[in-house]
Description:
With 340 residues, this protein is α/β, with parallel strands linked by helices. It has two domains: 3-111 and 216-333, Periplasmic binding protein-like II (D-Maltodextrin-Binding Protein, domain 2); 118-209, D-Maltodextrin-Binding Protein, domain 2. It is built from 13 helices and eleven strands. It has helices at 40-47, 50-53, 66-74, 88-93, 146-157, 175-180, 193-200, 224-229, 231-249, 254-264, 270-276, 288-303, 320-328; strands at residues 3-5, 29-34, 58-63, 81-84, 99-105, 118-122, 138-141, 166-169, 186-190, 205-209, 218-222. Strand 7, helix 5 (146-157) and strand 8 (166-169) form a beta-alpha-beta unit. Helix 1 (40-47) crosses helix 9 and helix 9 (231-249) crosses helix 13. It is globular, with a radius of gyration of 19 Å. The chain starts with a strand and ends in a 12-residue tail after the last helix. Residues 7-26 have low confidence and may be disordered.
Amino acid sequence: MIRFSHATVAAASLMAFAYGPGANAQDALRIGAAGNTGGMIVFVAQDKGFFNKHGLDAKVEIRNTGPELTKSLNAGEIDLAPAAFTNLPAALERGLDLRGIVGYVGNAYSSTASDRQIGIVARADTGIKTIADLKGKKVAVSFGTSGDTYFQAALAKAGMSVGDVARSNLPPSSLVSALDTASVDAVVIWEPMFTTALDKVKGSYTVMRGGDFTCFCAMMHGSPAKVYADKKRTQAFVDAMSQAAFYLRDPKNLDEVAQIGSRFVRGMTPDLIKRTHQYADYETRIGPNTAKVFDAAVEQLIAQKKMKAPYDAMKYLDFEFINSTMKRHPEWFKDMPGAG
């Protein structure tokens, strides 16, 4: 049985397949994913049976944010989960011991920045045209998220700081409603909520999107005990993720991919997924450039006083599994650019 779990997902959304070779209910691999378009590789791998094909009995556990996924990982509720470079290094510095084994979202393999999914949306009649116009304005952002790191980096590039704006902390699920009720002048938000805000808040508009301020990049990781206890199973997971990402990137599959996403996360309609798909980079490869991007994220976090000192990327990243996948299945990456 292929399963996923979320408090807001209707039971009618469940899709069933036969167990893969050697799989049984006792050795199910619990895979975490965020409840947004960032989780699409996992959703496709589950729905299309790629996990099953590679011998895994997988259960997908959906959470709203990266910090929530990390909390569930620490609590032993899930085995593997994603987290973004824009906040994960701070947790690693505090003693969290994880190994990043495969890409989840963002293109850290061949690019230094990947932030087209994030941006700033403002209400009508606020007079906000550029980031400089945010001075003194009420801006909502979810503290500790990639959106927060992106916002602070964008402010710094404009010669500003968080002290120049009336910054408020709201959970991601409240950002659109805050803009709609005029509680704030603008929100720092990511897809698919970015497009949802433009759709639902009359007169709202894009102040900025992306800008190469940061890499909205996340890896799938687990504790060393989980990653290395059964290396064959870990390799199967990385294979399945990479095959699913290739399927996800193929334009001819967009209609089906949109339906899959809508079954996993309430509020993600097929139309919304199709319209926002262009902004996401679904890249599972990791390599030397990934380590450079990680280091750049650490520098940002230190500058924002979220970390105290550098952290060696190679204490976290492990290329072994994805290198094997790339060697055995180059066809799954033929549509992607070369290494950075």
